[in-house]
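Structure request: DUF998 domain-containing protein, Glycomyces endophyticus.
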Amino acid sequence: MPAKELGPRARTVLAAALLACAVAVVGVALSQWLFGADLDPRDDNLSRAAGIGFTDEARGTFFSVLPVALPVLAGLLAPATRPGRVIGKLTRLVLVAYLVIGVLLASSAARYGFDAAGQLAEEGQVFIDTRAAVERLVLDGVWLALAGIGLVFGGKARSRERTSTAEVVK
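Returned structure:
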């Protein structure tokens, strides 16, 4: 059933559910990155951000389609009613949080990857070389750019929808 055929209440509930799923995915990824350390002394926030395989799941969870697409879909699906506008604002907040956390995660991974001498001194081998760090940084940048595009176009779609439904005052 297309979104046009759903009533405002159903669209609000569906948009809220999508937004809650997006918040859960971002929250789990943040938890995996910051609090998922194991007893292995080589396992720290920078190595986990770089995804070198100790207990790292954060990169795969965070830089995926779900935390980018779910808030955008929720924002586009939310009706122009008051709950829909609140969902639209929360959608922008989730996307901004995604961008901030993503920049921190990507910069931590890049910092770890570009420090080959530090890896060699601390772990005895280089896990992420400069080439791999640049590749990951480019891919992370693509995900962050997609989230930024969703933030911009989601806001424009909301403002267009609001102005197109305004009644003419006589």
